[in-house]
Amino acid sequence: EKNFDENLKLGKEIFEKELVKVGSSLKQIENSVELKEYLNKNSINSLNDLLIKITSKKLNVALLSKRLVKKDEKLDLEIIENYQNETPKRKSRKKNDYGVIIDGLDNTIIRFAKCCTPLPGDEIGGYITTYGDIGIHRLDCKNYINLITRDPNREIAVKWDDEVVSSKINKYRFKFTIITTDKPNILLEIVKIIADHKIDLEGVNSGHIKNGAERLSVIEITIDINEKRDYEKLINHIVNLRDVIEIKRSQNN
Predict the structure, then answer these.
(1) Distance between CA 109 and CA 53 in Å, rounded?
(2) Of all residues in the chain, what percent are helix, strand and coil, respectively (each to 5)?
């Protein structure tokens, strides 16, 4: 009996590890139609029997996990991986606070979604990921809407902490894209404006696109800022440059 329990535990650990890789968990699939069909088709009496087979290495667990997880469930893992790994930069780290209040909870790991890069001033929503972290999205983010539509139980109420935001302790990673005519020195002009606004420039990527016969520059800027108003003030300045055609927030929407 001891060996059985140990083998059961080991099988569960192995299976859980592979399920996590495809964005699921044992809890999510244990009552699924896919698992029941697999057990019936392979004459396996129960989930416990399956776990014992996994321990005895009679099954390809990686392949089994992929078969049991529906394609749309993989979206969950993709979204998780697209959360910012960094906590907001802080001038002072006297307390562990992200500037977001989550239903009165403390000491919860929060990740800001890269797909919509929410900033204080944006309306936000929370989503409990497979790993138990809280992903913070803009309310109008299509990824967020898809996630909570598929699994409403993972939605959690969140809001910005006005006290922390107004103190300007945190800085948030943010990306936006500028479309310009292909003129020399336009990037230098943009970088100078960012410096004049005393905003931390974290990265620049540039490329080109064709608009008919015209060649345009596409410049993606990554900055660290305190809130949405900082971005609005910045783009109000950049948009006045003669060669700037369009400025937009970088997002998967």
Answers:
(1) 35
(2) 40, 30, 30
Same-domain status, 160 and 182: no
Is 74 domain-assigned?
no
Tokens 């790993």 belong to residue: 131
Sequence-distant (6+) residues with CB within 8 A of 253 are: 115, 116, 140, 141, 142
Domain boundary among 149, 167, 185: 167
Total number of domains in the chain = 3
Residue 191: domain span: 171-249
pLDDT tens per residue across span 51-98? 988 888 767 787 788 777 754 444 444 444 455 555 565 443 333 367
Q: Please tell me whether the overall predicted TM-score, pTM, comes out greater than 0.85 for this model.
A: no
Residue 228: both structure tokens together: 């949405």
